[in-house]
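As described in the Methods, two query proteins were run sequentially through the folding procedure within a single session, without resetting any intermediate state between them. The first query and its resulting structure tokens are shown here.
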Amino acid sequence: MNIKYIIITIISLISIGCVTSKPEPKPKDTKLKERDWVAVYEHEVRVAIANDDRAAWNFFMVELLKEKLRLKKLKLEDLADE
């Protein structure tokens, strides 16, 4: 008879243990800071050089160049809109 109560208690705890009253987070609830990606990538390139890490240098140098190109395109689009 004690086993019956233990099983009922375990099932009850499992079924009500995952209930939460908080609403699910939505993407609009997340606030991201604007980052200066050029500064981040420049820092990572310097670190890669200091650590003699060619793979990291290649990766971050490509990302740095892509970011600079993206910013240049944005600037040109802004100038064209004026």
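Immediately afterward, the second query was submitted; its sequence and tokens are:
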Amino acid sequence: MPYFDKDGQRTVEPHPTNIRPQDSAVQEYVSLLERFGVCSGCRGEPWAVWSGSNMEAKQYPLLMVTWGTLVRSVYIAAERGAGNDMVQATLEMGL
């Protein structure tokens, strides 16, 4: 699952119940992403649900039930470090 669709729109965002006021954690994750990327297999699995009131419509963005803080950090790192190899590898790997 890519972080961005073919039009450059975000494909995931934190579920409303998974948005925590952890700005310092988000910034720390951004720093770690820039240095190491997302280390696959070192975290729990990402879980998401479809957004929208009609689940059969399967509307994007997916709402992340887990990984909310990390997903916020990935998007910040993507905006901030377009030339960073670790950020690019994370984006290419997707979820």
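The first helix runs from residue 23 to 36. We note this only descriptively and draw no conclusion about the first query from it.
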